[in-house]
Specification:
This protein is mainly alpha-helical. It has 11 helices and no strands. It has 2 domains: 134 residues, no CATH class; 120 residues. The relative contact order is 0.11. Pfam families: DUF1295.
Amino acid sequence: MTFWWSLACTAAAVAAVLAVTFAVASRLGRHSVIDVAWGLGFCAVAAVGAGVSAGHGDAARRWTVLAMTLAWGLRLAAHIAHRARGGGEDPRYEDLLSKAPGSRNLYALRKVYLPQGVVLWFVSLPIQVAMFQNGAPGIALYAGVVVWAIGLAFEAIGDFQLSRFAAAPANKGRVMDRGLWRYTRHPNYFGDALVWWGLFLTTCDEWTGPLTVLSPVAMTLLLAKGTGKPLLETRMARTRPGYADYAARTSGFIPLPPQPKRQ
């Protein structure tokens, strides 16, 4: 019964985070603020889940999963906030909100906040299940930590390399094809997917864990086929000369050796 109560509490936590985000975004006139709240929403779910599950799940697993989620979510939120400082509305949201038949804020609430809230809560199910598992940590938990760490490293290093590249005036308008970006056009998205497969694996020492497999599947599809990679690549192809050549020789998601440059 406590588990079902926890699901309701985490849903309320997601709603609270997004409600505050919506209020801030409406005041600023910039709904891309929700990108910062994305990682924070998962942190809220993990914290609430850990609190409600106290005295129920295995302590080692609960604290491990909480630490993993907080490390990933807080780093991502800080990175996006730093990247967006002083900027205007993200072109993705500007394009979407330009179609609003009436109030842009209400349209954003329906088209951005509600869907992201549902996805956030669904993707976080492995975290929520892990909090209530009673078995001692086993090989799946350890494997999950390793996969998560590799994913976090890919995401963080990819973001750092891109930030340094973009900060150099000489690179203005150029395509980033160095470091991890030589092997995949989206090391940060690939790393993000691994993070969620790692969190999923932490639950797989017990039979309840595999039941949440659709959560990492959904996140991976969103990153590779949904609102992540396709939207970004469409914009890059439109605004970055040479992107087509880069895309032709560089893997779209899974890191692979680059193809030779066209002559």
